[in-house]
Q: What sequence folds into this?
DNA sequence: AAAGACACCTGGGAGC
DNA sequence: TGCTCCCAGGTGTCTT
């Protein structure tokens, strides 16, 4: 997906256009996303004012006077604010039409995203088990160390576990581990305390830098204004298997963890 | 209880 | 040109 920086960039991009606006209509062209869009979602949101746009993990929450719309971008989702008259294209599944004449347009080729009503049993279920936000003080050594201390799983799997910390996807987990000199396959319990402290700092630093630069542009992601993010050029190992490590010149290798590619420098990461 | 496999879905690129 | 195969930012759920 869009990882956390992309979601946050989207939130910041759309918020000024949505906040304070009244919803005129919800157009659902294809309700078959990860979960079907609820049939009664349009009835619930129609005529309501959007009070604020917030984010929890990778969920965008469009808060209304009553309740909220909970949007997830999945792997290939994207939201943009466009003129409501702009013709919809193939993967433009949802439009949230505003009184301003603009609409929030949701595009998602793979349809792993979701639009749900919140609160609902499903939304509560999805949010209830989530760990802390990585950019808050709550995500610190005293929190993470006890979770790693007796855990045999690979450190990469642990930091990508939403119950441990949210918003660290494959790209940023890969990059933070490189920056910390930790092999992604290393058992969490064998990461030293010093390395764990560094890892936490690098996760925060890299996520913050990516947000600052508007997210990482890969295949599908563009910012809500349609401009690409600029972080991709800063990637040190992700997507660079076979190339030379910028730091030591060794060839970057790739392995698979949890059916997901994991790039690392065999020399810099032990 | 924890780790791994599989599921959802489309598009792009590599190789033949 | 076109076919087949593999891969991709996520994450809930089912199997070991």
A:
């Amino acid at each position: 997906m869009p990882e956390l920086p992309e979601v946050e960039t989207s939130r910041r991009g759309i918020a000024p256009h949505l906040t304070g606006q009244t919803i005129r209509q919800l157009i659902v062209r294809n309700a078959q996303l990860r979960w079907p869009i609820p049939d009664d979602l349009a009835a619930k949101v129609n005529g309501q004012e959007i009070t604020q746009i917030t984010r929890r993990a990778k969920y965008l929450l469009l808060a209304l006077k009553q309740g909220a719309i909970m949007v997830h971008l999945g792997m290939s989702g994207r939201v943009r604010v466009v003129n409501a008259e702009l013709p919809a294209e193939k993967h433009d599944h949802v439009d949230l039409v505003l009184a301003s004449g603009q609409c929030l347009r949701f595009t998602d080729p793979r349809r792993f995203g979701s639009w749900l009503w919140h609160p609902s049993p499903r939304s509560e279920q999805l949010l209830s088990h989530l760990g802390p936000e990585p950019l808050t003080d709550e995500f610190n050594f005293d929190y993470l160390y006890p979770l790693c201390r007796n855990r045999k799983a690979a450190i990469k799997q642990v930091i990508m576990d939403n119950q441990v910390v949210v918003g660290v996807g494959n790209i940023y987990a890969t990059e933070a581990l490189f920056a910390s000199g930790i092999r992604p396959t290393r058992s969490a319990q064998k990461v030293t305390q010093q390395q764990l402290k560094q890892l936490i700092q690098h996760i925060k630093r890299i996520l913050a830098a990516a947000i600052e630069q508007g997210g990482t542009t890969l295949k599908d992601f563009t910012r809500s204004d349609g401009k690409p993010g600029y972080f991709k050029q800063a990637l040190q190992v992700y997507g660079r298997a076979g190339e030379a490590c910028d730091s030591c010149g060794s060839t970057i290798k790739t392995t698979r963890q949890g059916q997901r590619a994991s790039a690392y420098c065999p020399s810099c990461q032990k």
Observations:
- Residues 132 and 165 of chain A are 5 Å apart (CA to CA).
- Residues 1-3, 6, 34, 58, 72-76, 110, 112-113, 125-126, 160, 162, 169-171, 216, 218-221, 260-261 of chain A lie near DNA strand C (CB under 10 Å from a C1').
- The longest strand of chain A covers residues 50-56.
